[in-house]
Amino acid sequence: MSTPSNTTTTVSFAGDGYTSIELFLEREDGADDATVTLTAADGGGSVERRMTAGMYREHVVVPIRATADSRIDAHGCGIALAYLAGGDGLIDRGVRYVVPDGDRVRESGVRLRPVARWMNDPNGLCRFRGLYHMFYQFNPYGWSWDDMHWGHAVSDDLVFWRHLPVALFPQELLQRDRDWSGGAFSGSAVAVDDQGRPCADGDEAAAIRLFLTRHMYHEGGEDSLDEVQVTALCRDGMTVEDERVVVTRPNNDIAPDFRDPKVEIVRRGGASVARMVVATNLPVAPHAAYAVDPSATPGERPGWFTDDASLDRAHAALSQHPDTDRAPAIVAFDADRDDLGGAVWRYAGPVLQDVARGDAFTFECPDLFPVGDRWCAVGGLMKYRDAQGRFQPVRWYVGDLGDGGRGRGDGDGAVGDGAGTDAGAALSVTSSDLCDFGSCYYAAQSFADHRGRRIAFGWLVDWFGVRREHPFAANGAMSLPRELSLHDGVLWSHPVREVYDVLVGDAIASADLVESGYVTVPVGGTSYYADLQFSVGDDDGDVDTAAGAVSGNTAGTGTDDVPDFDVTIAADAGHGLAVRLERRSGVTRLRTEGMGTDSVEFLSHVTRVHRVEIFDDGDVVEVFLNDGEDAGTLLVDERLASRPAAFEANLPAGSTASIHSLGAAAGRRP
Is the entire prediction scored with pTM above 0.85? Predict the structure, then answer.
């Protein structure tokens, strides 16, 4: 017998006021008896816990003495992950991860990521009793995707996060039989009052109402796939209970791939109604009325079907074939009452179907929300590469809900404000594009906070094999929080104010270029923020130079093209690695060298650029153009991530460049 990979058999820790240790155990092959023993260093005795017979994985909670140093020894099993929990004020202090002896906890730095193991989709975003909550897809057992749990974290400011105990677990059968997979798939949250009704102000809410997909699949059995939508309640902001099924497939047109419920408030028949959107695919012919009009995406070249990001179009065509009779779709269900705990969810019909990208298998992680005076749907295109080679891109679709444009939003989008008027299910789409023009932004989810802002996070996923596996390392991270807004039918996204307040530090260097020229700035660390602004012609043809101060909300007014520029965001000549942002003849793009993404064209739709913001935190680069008119995100090879950063750029005359420190140590964290 051998200990399962990515596990340990011994961890030591100080109680430090916590009252329990939560262990994620994996049984050794062939081990009939698997136990963990807690021993207090002060001679206070020991406690033994035995894995349940027949379980090859199990979450085990062991009480500890809050003031004692202790050690856990595992026999017949390995410890995949462990953290201290319990005790007073846990939601304010967070859990403390216990790492294998000789290892260390890695700080998350600029963005939310797990201390270790696999993370994917953001789930259950909400504001509740003074804190922002984010649940997320989590595999505590390894580096890669596996049976899904819901991790959980809270924040005071959307930037710095405290991890809480894992909130949801896979179905027990999945922990007994390796041939089954699935678990607690993605979903959303609504803050509710003591009557179960959605709250306009989550700070005054009584509980969090969760919605998610329960997924089951037996290896090799295509007909075994089962996905249902469930709801559960979280009263204390940590403990989830009272789970029950609320939505199953209403007809056979809806595919078995039927998941990721997102609940929002719309107005129908003069009353506010909770609407759940779910991702699936539908037959094309019977649902032509719901197809996205091709005029919403003029001139866009078609992509192709593939479930492997490493396959180009020619190789994918040899072995992988889409079902051209079906296309990705988002469908809706409406609650029949205000009490979401007791509501019956009735099928309201399709919201949209993207026939133009019909080679995609299905949507994932759908969203539907009011923005400005319109409505916006969002979805990730599963098993699809677009014409530029981006894998599983996320698209937004802006339009009106209901017949004759009667679904136009009339509020700021906060839950319960009644945004939208008489909203039918179908979205009449007038414009559509990508949420992010980079390589890794996926499974985006939004929510409305107590200030009326529409805020989104995306999962930063390594489709192209940029990251390298290490013992007790994290695979997955979240984007910076982005505030969404609508400008002339285009969805913009820009870092929230808090990012500038607490992450962006003092200026390292600044430059005003009277003539075009080359700028280089040694940063002194692995992270930095750069703010580049260019002289552009205003509507009268005069030249205007934007101010260089860090503001986070500067509005651009320029209309004339600026000259070409070239920014080296990160580079290591010795390994032939680089990440660049460049503009050539009106085309703005991100470009990599020496990575798995070199063949992909990361093209932005923006042709006139007056401002570029770069957030480089070592292993992730997020770029924002023109205060959020477009955004692009790339993962960075770890050989670049560990090097001292240096900002280099060839900029046009009249530019300003301001380089700042970035991160917890550099920012102005309260």
Answer: yes
